[in-house]
Input
Amino acid sequence: MPTRDTGEHAQKSRTDADVDQVEETAAATSDLAERKEALDADIDAILEDIDEALETNAEEFVRGFVQKGGQ
Output
């Protein structure tokens, strides 16, 4: 007489796969957070450089955009 499969084995495999997927998602989220922090730091450094350049050369910077005569 054939035995009836209760599906416990298949259910356990799905649970293990779900746990693996959650772990992979958590790792990917962590990697994205680290990349975002690094990019934010790079952007902040660039903006700081621009601020410093404008503080020291603001008048010269503005003169470069002032229209002269028939321009």
User: Anything to note?
Assistant: The chain has a mean pLDDT of 78.
